[in-house]
Write a structure and sequence with these properties.
CATH class of the largest domain: Alpha Beta
Strand content: 15-25%
Shape: globular
Radius of gyration: 22 Å
Number of helices: 17
Bound molecules: nicotinamide-adenine-dinucleotide
Largest sheet: 8 strands, parallel
Strand order of the largest sheet: 1-4-3-2-5-6-7-16
Oligomer: single chain
Number of strands: 16
Structural class: alpha/beta
């Protein structure tokens, strides 16, 4: 009997269809799953994962299980769980799953505690809630954790802060920082799925709208480019001069959020920072402005400030849309309660791109069992990154050139000049 807490096991059939559909677009992960079945590199390893419970994640769980691991999954966000996928994980794939879409904060942390009560040897995290709870509430179990993998930018930032404070007691791998992760998942995955989430929530026409992107990091540039591709006039806001300059030279309008607030029709933050959109901005926004976030935590939009400013809130004027009415007659619309809109209102990143992120997760779980890592934030080894890229190219039927001996020698020499 699988242990679980999910919304409705009856949804399993639909969940399974979606998991298998996603799997068709995850050939690299599939090839790793086949090898894992033969070699069982994670045999009898208890593994707890705190990730968005989506069809792609389900395929990662299947892969880890095929590698011999005893797997438990809990949600890394209260609103991103796909209840049908959770049901199928329990019913069809025998994965202990603790995730209910819309769970309150208490249930969210109950699920994280279930993942830690499982006494995992390996943990997978998306945002570092699992690892931080391990350190704060389970000090006696820290020594039992051999390694943790971190999936996202915000999680890596938190873990680096822990390491800097001398608080980090386990080895962690910054999967997010691998090239085959952030150059693709953050850029193309978040770019496309964030636009998808905003459209699914509102059915807005992007063509001709002024679309303000807060933050021109990996996710922000993906979003800005996708929004431009659909005909929006894209404005970028930044705090980092080099990133701002890149945005300018990529052809975007760059200005302060104070100025952008006046002209924007659609706003989406994706900075990993806090209070990027706040009362001073809401006060200036046009009637009908749409406000969303695709950064990891729901702190980028000052929702408390929005609530204080509004004299009336109409919840769910459409699914995932709350209307905030101001005394001067204007309304602004907050999408997905300020949580990652691509996972709340759409399905998160397409499987094609999660193929690489989750191939890295599986390979690094294997790597962490074969190598003794020190308590610190570790990078994904270059050879693993290159392997994932090569496998992805192979599955796409794309061949590339190889360095000749002469070229290798040339690139490694300094004597030859003008
Ligand atoms: N929605 C998703 O599915 C998804 C996927 C991957 C990452 N993320 C999250 O998205 C966030 C961004 O990730 P990233 O990889 O692009 O990070 P990044 O570090 O590459 O980029 C963040 C950018 O935001 C800028 N910034 C910081 N504070 C700002 C402010 N007040 N105003 C304007 N710009 C500001 C930074 O200078 C930086 O250029 C993180 O929270 C990450 O965890 C979400």
């Amino acid at each position: 009997m699988t242990d679980y807490h999910i919304a409705d096991v009856e949804l399993a059939a639909e969940g399974k269809r979606r998991i298998l559909w996603a799997d068709r677009n995850m050939p690299v992960l599939t090839s790793i799953r086949e090898r894992f079945s033969d070699e069982e590199p994670l045999k009898d390893v208890r593994l707890s994962a705190c990730l968005h419970v989506t069809a792609e994640t389900a395929n990662l769980m299947r892969t880890l299980k095929a590698g011999g691991a005893d797997v438990l999954l809990c949600a890394s966000n209260p609103l991103s769980t796909q209840n049908d996928v959770a049901a199928s994980l329990v019913e069809d794939f025998g994965i202990k799953t603790y995730a209910v879409n819309g769970e309150d904060r208490e249930t969210y942390y109950d699920h994280i505690r279930a993942a830690l009560d499982f006494k995992p040897k390996i943990t997978l995290d998306d945002g570092a809630d699992l690892v931080s709870t391990l350190h704060s509430d389970y000090p006696e179990d820290i020594s039992g954790v051999r390694c943790s993998m971190e999936e996202t930018t915000t999680g890596v930032i938190r873990l680096e802060a822990m390491a800097q404070d001398g608080a980090l007691k386990i080895p962690v791998v910054a999967v997010n920082d691998a090239d085959t992760k952030h150059l693709f998942d953050n850029q193309y995955g978040t770019g496309q799925s964030t636009v998808d989430g905003i459209i699914r929530a509102t059915d807005v026409l992007l063509a001709g709208k002024t679309f303000v992107v807060g933050g021109y990091g990996m996710c922000g540039r993906g979003l800005a480019n996708r929004a431009r591709g659909m005909g929006a006039h894209v404005v970028v806001t930044e705090v980092e001069p080099v990133r701002a300059l890149q945005a300018v030279m990529d052809g975007f309008k760059v200005m302060s959020m104070d100025d952008a607030a006046i002209i924007g029709d659609i706003f989406c933050t994706v900075t990993g920072n806090t209070t990027v959109l706040t009362t001073q901005h809401f006060e200036k926004m046009k009637d009908g402005a749409l406000i969303a976030n695709s950064g990891h935590f729901n702190v980028e939009i000052n929702i408390e400030g929005l609530e204080m400013l509004a004299n009336k809130v109409n919840r769910n004027v459409r699914n995932y849309v709350d209307e905030y009415l101001f005394s001067d007659g204007r309304s602004v619309y907050l999408l997905g309660e300020g949580r990652l809109i691509n996972l709340v209102a759409a399905e998160g990143h397409p499987a094609d791109v999660m193929d690489m992120s989750f191939a890295l997760q599986a390979l690094m779980a294997e790597y962490s069992m074969k190598n003794d890592l020190t308590p610190a934030v570790h990078s994904v080894p270059r050879e693993v990154d290159k392997l994932v890229a090569s496998l992805k190219l192979q599955t796409m039927g794309i061949e590339i050139d190889a360095l000749s001996d002469e070229q290798e020698t040339y690139l490694n020499s300094w004597e030859e000049g003008t």
